[in-house]
Amino acid sequence: MENNGNYKNEFGWFAEKPQVPKKFYNAKTVVGGLVIFLILVTAPLWRNLGKVVPAPDPQLNTQAIMALPEKDRTCVEDKAYMQAYHMRLLVDWRDEVVRNANRDYINSKGKRYLASLSNGCMECHSNKSQFCDQCHNYVAVAPNCWGCHWEKEKKQVAQTEAK
Fold first, then answer.
1. Contact in structure between 2 and 9 (CB atoms under 8 Å)
2. How, if at all, do strands 7-9 and 104-106 pair?
3. Residue 160: its H or E element
4. Contacts of residue 7, Cβ cutoff 8 Å, sequence gap at least 6
5. Is 23 part of a structural domain of the chain?
6. I need a surface site. Which of 69, 149, 150, 161 has the fewest CB within 10 A?
């Protein structure tokens, strides 16, 4: 059998493959749909472009802080350290208390503090919504401290120390 432009495969001789012209059907509709899709998907980004949410300013004027003399109105560490590393400090405290039964924390200046979120930090920073929640909401974190260590711990530590 002659070739004559036909091709052969394992099943035998076949006619030439039809040449189908490549055409982009509904080009205007497809491109228009893609443009609308991209506008809708990126609209929240464009709407907020250039807007900056101001950083929170935690209130440090609780009754406990104001009752202290001016020279004693200091945290366990300086402000910059606490803003950057307070969660690491709390985790270290937790590990020391739970694993080593050590409730004392000696800061970088040599002063001794009780290593306790509820009986230490929250004594001065008692307004959780104005002090803690402002910053945590700003950076979109949900610390897991508050489920167990709010009022419950104060009672437990007081009972333990009374024994």
1. no
2. unpaired
3. helix 151-162
4. 13, 14, 16, 17
5. no
6. 69
Q: The domain containing residue 147 runs over which residues?
A: 63-162
Amino acid letter, residue 74? T
The total number of structural domains in the chain stands at 1
Q: Retrieve residue 16's tokens.
A: 């030439």
Q: Give 62-87 pLDDT, tens digit per residue.
A: 787 888 888 877 888 988 898 889 88
Task: Say which amino acid occupies 44.
Answer: P
**108 domain-assigned:** yes
DSSP string, 48-100: TTT--PPPP------HHHHHS-GGG---SS-HHHHHHHHHHHHHHHHHHHHHH
Residue 21, domain member (yes or no)? no
